[in-house]
């Protein structure tokens, strides 16, 4: 049976009193990611963005909550659905959009596209088109941080489908026995590509599998509540920096669109998406901000308009940018 939207996860951690969630900052980040993903979906539909595109519409709270809890020098590795994570970590919006257009002003000079975005200067080790491939990558980053005494945390984003990959089990086991500062961030959006994840394992909880299988600390949170994700990540990062070893966070969320843009989603039950949209991450944040007297609806509307306008400028700049010259195909290539 497909889980209902997480109206209240019983083991979601409240934010500690001395670490109040930056609700306005979280709202601005969610709004920016939402605007970016909506634009990319439309651009792909209209044939302006080449290759495949996998958007994170509906999952923006996870990216915002995690990134707000990290330091600028912390490491991050993401997936084929990683636009939001990279934007939330601070990647340049214009360079992000240009990369999707395949333009020379992109983060990878137009050579990587949607699924291979990286910015090492921000600790962003890259998106990866191979399921689960970023998980062992951040174990290496966490090991280097520990060995060099850098106090940096390494975070890997992945979907629950990746938990059945050998790379997940090997990486979590190594992080556990070496007591590494690694955070394994599972965005459980209920579907591994086109398959209901509940049909793929006998133990439905990824957090339980991590605790029972590898003895790591794990928590399950409402992935549509950016403040809850932020609190869990603050706790996880603090544990890592205290030398208490790796943490797994399972964020329960839902992708509004299919596995890729253009996917008909015939594998999803009727009304499932509409029920989850009632837990829209923007709606959840707005309600809390207004309830706590931290902003009005008009002010939040203005923030979302600013995000829309920022993405429009990025699209305009990407359209005007140059394609890489032909000879660039031979740059950054190594051979014996």
From TrEMBL:
Residues 1-20 have a biased composition (Pro residues). Residues 30-323 form the Dehydrogenase E1 component domain. GO terms for molecular function: magnesium ion binding; pyruvate dehydrogenase (acetyl-transferring) activity. Residues 1-22 are annotated as: Disordered. It holds the Pfam family E1_dh. Its cofactor is thiamine diphosphate. Keywords: Oxidoreductase, Thiamine pyrophosphate. The keyword Protein biosynthesis does not apply. It comes from the Bacteria. It is an enzyme of class 1 (oxidoreductase). Its EC number is 1.2.4.-. This is Acetoin dehydrogenase E1 component alpha-subunit. It comes from Patulibacter medicamentivorans. The lineage of its organism: Bacteria, Bacillati, Actinomycetota, Thermoleophilia, Solirubrobacterales.
